[in-house]
Write a structure and sequence with these properties.
The protein is mainly alpha-helical. Helices cover 46% and strands 8% of the residues. It has 6 helices and 2 strands; from the N terminus they run ααβαβααα. Strands 1-2 form a two-stranded parallel ribbon. β1, α3 and β2 form a beta-alpha-beta unit. It starts with a helix and ends with a helix. The mean pLDDT is 83.
């Protein structure tokens, strides 16, 4: 985005790495609530606070929506836990049915056989 547009809108783009990724230190005690309160500190940048969750960041956005006041939220190509009890069932059914069968199969394997997923992902 053009820096002039950001200055005109008085907007900031702030990004961070999830714990244990990129430049961020691992935090085994991290919870969706603690992450939300960490992100809430960014809200001090201005009166309106929007978030965008990309891929696995979608999980963080769900926590933010639950624990802190936001002006808006967007999920871009979110990875979702199809077995999360807080996810609206109707919405899940619609989203899951639109996935290609290969993705439905992969999500099922990851859920029911996590050891196989781990083994596959750690192969050289």
């Amino acid at each position: 985005m053009d820096q002039g547009v950001l200055e005109e809108l008085k907007a900031y783009i702030v990004s961070f790495d999830r714990p244990g990724y990129g430049e961020s230190d691992p935090d085994p005690n991290r919870t969706p609530k603690s992450l939300a309160f960490d992100v809430e500190e960014f809200a001090e940048l201005g009166p309106k606070f929007y978030v965008i969750g990309y891929s696995m960041g979608g999980q963080a956005v769900w926590g933010l929506l639950k624990y802190i006041p936001l002006t808006g939220a967007t999920l871009m190509t979110p990875v979702i836990n199809c077995w999360w009890s807080g996810f609206p069932y109707k919405l899940l059914k619609i989203a899951y049915s639109k996935k290609p069968w290969q993705d439905q199969w992969t999500v099922g394997v990851a859920h029911y056989l996590p050891w196989l997923t781990y083994w596959w992902m750690t192969q050289k």
